[in-house]
Amino acid sequence: MNELAANQVEDARSVLGHLGFDPERSNERSALVLLSLMQLHPGDSWATVEAPTLGTRAIMDWISDHYGVEYAPNTRETIRRFTLHQFVAAGLVQENPDDPARPVNSPKWCYQVRAEALGLLSAYGTQKFNLLLSAYLKDVPGLVAQYASQREMARIPVVLPDGSPLTLSPGGQNALIKAMIDEFCAYYAPGGRVLYVGDADAKWAVFHEDELASLGISVDMHGKMPDLVVHLPEKNWLLLLEATASHGPVDGQRYSELSAMFSSSTAGLVYVSCFPSRVIMRKYLTQIAWETEVWCADDPTHLIHFNGERFLGPYE
């Protein structure tokens, strides 16, 4: 890194320190991420900062092209989790300004410096900076609360069978998971107890570890849980439901994985692949394992049973 680039990085680190970020969020990596989001090249005046929308891959490529710092592909998650998430939480950066409801697994997921912060950043190195900084820091708690409220409004509201409220992140398969809770549970699991709900941005959105333990189940926190787990106390069935919107159904391999994961269960296991529609189900028809059930959200009052002597029930 040449002198101009090194000086620009140090300035960016100084700015992050002024904004109250801790050492991890004001290190070289975070400084480079901020410079990329402002399109500030080595030697550029801070008065020329911009605010494009960039994805994590584009941020890494820009840093490589203009500052000569190469980040391995497997560091993308580090940049996202340990820099960008904190920038967003602090109100410095916004996610998907063009589409706030964009699914979290979308390749178009992007970040942009907020307009309020851009005005402050463009004044760095001038006499106005300290004055603007004081005003900005005074407003930050209110801005963060406002942005958090906007993000919350975009979430998907769900009411569990026991009346407990829950919100899921927008997009992805969570619209289908909401239908599974609202529709499938109403028709096929009345009186059921939801013990686990997965969410794209909070894997353990609902997790009743004690109740699973009472059924003899010890959950591996690193294991690939089903998207929804429901216990039917009257029948002592445990329904393992997979949302097949962004990944596959309960095929032979997944059947084996779930059987092993829940092998200690004292409740009978029922495997259910859930689809948004029969049109989508047809794409996976040859993959669906025998002795499982299929449910389609566009025909919520019907089930498709894949062979075996039982219909919606566990096998010994």
How much helical structure, as a percent, in the residues?
25-40%
The major pleated sheet works out as: 7 strands, mixed
Which of globular, elongated, flat, extended, rod-shaped describes the shape?
elongated
Count of DSSP-assigned helices: 10
Number of strands: 11
Which segments are poorly predicted (pLDDT under 50) over 5 or more consecutive residues?
Answer: none
Major beta sheet, strand line-up: 6-5-7-8-9-10-11
Strand-residue fraction? 15-25%
What Rg do the Cα atoms give? 24 Å
Order of helices and strands: HHHHEEHHEEHEEHEEHEHEE
Structural class: alpha+beta
What would the average pLDDT be, to the nearest integer? 85
**End-to-end distance, in Å?**
65 Å
Concise synopsis of the structure shown:
With 316 residues, the chain is α+β, with helices and mostly antiparallel strands.
Fold topology:
Layout: H1 3-18, H2 28-38, H3 56-67, H4 76-89, E1 93-95, E2 111-113, H5 115-121, H6 128-153, E3 156-159, E4 165-168, H7 174-188, E5 193-197, E6 206-207, H8 209-214, E7 228-232, E8 237-243, H9 252-261, E9 268-275, H10 278-283, E10 292-296, E11 303-306
Parallel strand pairs: 8-9, 9-10
Antiparallel strand pairs: 1-2, 3-4, 5-6, 5-7, 7-8, 10-11
Helix pairs in contact: 1-2, 2-3, 5-6
